[in-house]
Automatic annotation (TrEMBL):
Keywords: Signal. The keyword Signal applies. This is WG repeat-containing protein. InterPro entries: WG_beta_rep.
Length: 368
């Protein structure tokens, strides 16, 4: 019986930790709701931040502390400035000094740095004499300080610059793409775009294949095709650099759910991977489809269409910032979209119903 109770409590704790909550503002106070619109933590805070890594910063009497998803204070307010937890560690300011703390609020000893950086994929950067390296959560230096710039890691890889040239490194500090390019894109499934002198092309391993006449290439974003510009027009190339859809569009965005938004004659529509229009260009703007198979389109305000082009949610909204998937997509994520109407923010479901039947003075994205 005792074991069953322990397992039940553990299961409840895991569910609570996994639950995504959104920070919302009611007049002058802030609280947190779940995806049904129910308050999990009632609005009692004058200032607060979104959840990150299971904790959220809240301000009480000019000092910041951290709460858990049950609303209980886990780290007492004692900080004058805070960032967010990542990999169990947060950068905070106390008594005029910046430092790292763990989830118990304990100060951590880390390598010295001219600036403190947030953790990202298990590493934090450090700067010595304007050179960048990285250390892990135990404070062990993994990448020595030899780079001018290191961009945030994504899926274990990061763009880095040394001696005015760009390359790709992994989280072990190993060089994946040599430092011989003037610009580079994100590394995705073993490939990235690159610029060398005035030529643009694709890097597959250590091989650079120039795509003639191209003057801009966008990231693949884990898709088999990406878009590129040639002679002022945009088309789509595959990972060998072959034009699959010839340059003909004024603007474009990434493929998602096998459809890509493109602009032709100042109107947006959607094409399939063969370049044929599935949804004719008739909108003032359009964003990529989410996994909910809905995409935001703009006419008189923003609404949402399905992958046949049918308007599912009528226009009249402003739409939110990125939910963090695809190409910084604006719109739905796991059945919920953040929208603004009449000067207030709220969340709608895939049928256009207002979740919780309530609008807020402000509402942030759902975070874990």
């Amino acid at each position: 019986m005792k074991k069953a109770l322990i397992f039940s409590l553990l299961a409840i704790g895991q569910i609570l930790f996994a639950q995504e909550l959104a920070l919302v503002k009611e007049k002058s106070t802030m609280g947190y709701i779940d995806r049904s619109g129910k308050y999990i933590i009632y609005p009692t805070f004058d200032a607060a931040k979104s959840f990150s890594d299971g904790l959220a910063a809240v301000k009480i009497k000019q000092l910041w502390g951290f709460i858990g998803k049950d609303g209980k204070m886990l780290i007492e307010p004692s900080f004058t400035n805070i960032r967010e937890f990542h990999d169990g560690i947060c950068v905070v300011e106390k008594d005029g000094a910046w430092m790292y703390i763990n989830k118990k609020g304990e100060k951590l000893t880390m390598p010295s740095s001219e600036k403190l950086y947030d953790f990202n994929e298990g590493l934090a950067f450090f700067k010595i004499n304007n050179k960048i390296g990285a250390f892990d959560t135990a404070g062990k230096v993994i990448i020595r300080e030899e780079y001018d710039v290191i961009k945030p890691f994504q899926n274990g890889f990061a763009r880095a610059s040394k001696n005015s040239k760009w390359g790709i490194i992994n989280i072990k500090g190993e060089i994946i793409v040599p430092f011989e390019y003037d610009d580079l894109g994100e590394y995705s499934n073993g490939i990235t775009w690159a610029q060398k002198d005035k030529s643009f092309g694709l890097v597959d391993g250590k091989d650079f294949k120039v795509i003639d006449g191209v003057d801009k290439i966008w990231d693949f974003n884990n898709q088999p095709l990406t878009y590129a510009k040639k002679n002022g027009k945009i088309g789509f190339v595959d990972k060998t650099g072959t034009w699959i859809i010839e340059p003909q569009f004024e603007k474009a965005r990434s493929f998602s759910q096998n459809l890509a938004p493109v602009c032709l004659k100042n109107k947006w529509g959607y094409i399939d991977p063969t370049g044929n229009f599935v949804i004719k260009p008739e909108y003032n703007d359009a964003e990529v489809f989410s996994s909910d198979n809905l995409a935001p389109v703009r006419g008189k305000g923003w609404g949402f269409i399905d992958n046949t082009g049918k308007i599912v949610i009528p226009m009249g909204y402003e739409i939110s910032a990125s939910f963090g998937f695809g190409e910084k997509n604006k719109g739905f994520n796991q059945g919920v979209s953040r929208v603004k109407k009449g000067g207030k923010w709220g969340f709608i479901d895939t049928s256009g119903n207002l979740i919780g039947d309530k609008w807020f003075y402000n509402a942030e994205l759902f975070q874990n």
